[in-house]
From TrEMBL:
Keyword Disulfide bond attached: no
Span of domain CBS: 23-80, 90-146
Pfam families for the chain: CBS
Keywords: CBS domain
InterPro entries (alphabetical): CBS_dom, CBS_dom_sf, Diverse_CBS-Domain
This protein's name: CBS domain-containing protein
Length: 146
């Protein structure tokens, strides 16, 4: 079953949407010297799958730590893993996009770097995070699965 003419127009409009129209504005931050267990607690508390990492040295820019980063380190049998810090597993610098980039361009960037989420930076501060889940929810509002 292919995409009909009407569906094609809708998809094209969605591709041209701007990231600011889909991003999650509830950004949660953590310091790079926080423990991984603190990061787990914060993600669970706020129901998020990533945290933006604030560097002790502002010149280093922002980083990002994801649920996957935490699982890979904490479930890893390396001795002392439970005492690791966010700085030990985070990605820095975080690849970021401006709020006025198209969803299509953002998805190309996500694909190129194998990312599931990207912080949105307005030139002064992080104003949101866009994830593949945000995009999927908008692109496919389709029938509910009950």
């Amino acid at each position: 079953m292919g995409i009909g003419w009407g569906e094609d127009i809708v998809l094209e409009k969605m591709r041209k949407m701007l990231v600011r129209d889909l991003m999650n504005r509830e950004v949660k931050f953590i310091k790079e010297d926080a423990s991984l267990l603190d990061a787990v607690w914060k993600m669970k508390q706020f129901g998020v799958s990533s945290l933006i990492v604030e560097s002790a040295n502002k010149g280093d820019g922002y980083g990002i730590v994801t649920r996957k980063d935490l699982i890979n380190k904490l479930i890893d049998p390396d001795p002392g893993a439970q005492h690791a810090l966010v700085a030990d597993v985070m990605t820095r610098p975080a690849i970021m996009v401006p709020p006025n980039i198209s969803v299509s361009a953002c998805v190309k960037l996500m694909k190129r770097y194998n990312l599931r989420r990207i912080p949105v930076f307005d030139g002064k501060e992080i104003v949101g995070v866009i994830s593949n889940s945000d995009i999927f929810a908008k692109f496919y509002p389709g029938p509910s699965v009950d």
